[in-house]
Structure formats: C-alpha cells, structure tokens
Amino acid sequence: MTKTLYMMRHGETLFNRLKKIQGSCDSPLTAKGIADAQRVGTYFQEHAITFDHAYSSTQERASDTLELVTKQPYERLKGIKEWGFGVFEGESEVLNPRPDPIRRSHGDFFCQYGGESDLQVQARVVKTLTAVMARPDHHQVLAVSHGGASFMFLRRWLSMDEIERRGIVLSNCAVLKYQYDNGAFKFEKIINLSSADGNNN
C-alpha cells in the first residue's frame, strides 16, 4: 500500500541569517522563519492535507516549526536531526570545505573534527523514516527535519544530476513530498512557500 511522507525543513533561524554552521547546535527562529512556517500550515489547510502522525527532530528549531504548522501531537526523533559538524558548529559558513568531487557533498570532511560523514547522516535518516513509514497506522506523515539531513535523504532516491536538472533547492520551510511503498521512497515534488522563493518543482 502506497503511503505519503511530507518531509519539511525548519524555518529560518538566527544562525541561518548570520550564515553560521548549524548542525547539532541550535538557534531560534526569526520572524521570517515563523511567518514561513505559518504559511506552510495555511497551505496544508487550504489543500485539505492532514496527517495521521507528525514528527520533528529533537532540535528546537524543528519542533518550533512543527508547532507553527500544526497543533496536533507529535514525537521527536533523534534519527532525523541535522548533520553534526563537530568543532565547526557555530562557526562561519565560509569555513565549509569545497564539495568532494566524487561524492558531490562534504563527504567525510567533518569526521576528523568530531562530526558526521554524508553517508552516516543519510543512513540514519533513511533508517529512521523507513521504520516510521513501515508502521501500519502511518499513511500520511509529516516529518520536520533540517537542510543537510533532508538533502542527504533526497540523494538516496534521486541522483545529484537529477536534483540539479529539476532545480530542486531546499530553502527554509521547503517541503519534500514522497510516496512510500515496501521500504522505498519515490520523490514526487517540492513545495517552496518561503517569502523569498517561488519554486514548486
């Protein structure tokens, strides 16, 4: 039986605005982040999109976003928290390395500094969300996560070439819609309602 997952990135935070690396560390939502999350909640209401279950990562920026989107009960999951960047947490984004030319991501770079690799992040998010969607009473689910975690999940199901071809950009409050069946996810579309974006590919 096909099920549906809506995977959402949290709203803009202070660290997002200041261009700081934000993985395991946290910062509050900005006024824009709050407004964009509320905009997504309105979109779901207007399109009669409801959820039988809702989840957020254990980080406050994700749970705060979810509470602005819906008032329903939810559960926090460590498995969908953001990529851990080790000693780079809270530092300027200019310190991020250039993408690994083969993996086309940060690869293993952060492991030497106490963080995670891209594949470690991907594995835990895929494992967590597969277990969630395999539950018998989970048919339409909302999961609020993070940019890096959501992007590595997406890359499990779409190649980097296909992501670029479709022009998929994971801005704050972007929602990725997937169909789930028998342990596999199929990307359907992205919904970008941020006040600075209009991409609905």
Automatic annotation (TrEMBL):
Source organism of the structure: Lactiplantibacillus paraplantarum
High-level lineage: Bacteria, Bacillati, Bacillota, Bacilli, Lactobacillales
SMART domains reported in the protein's UniProt record: PGAM
Assigned GO CC terms: cytoplasm
GO molecular function: phosphatase activity
Chain residues that bind substrate: 9-16, 61
Domain of life per record: Bacteria
InterPro entries: His_Pase_superF_clade-1, His_PPase_superfam, PG/BPGM_mutase_AS, PGM_Phosphatase
Full protein name: Histidine phosphatase family protein
PROSITE patterns on file: PG_MUTASE
Matching Pfam families: His_Phos_1
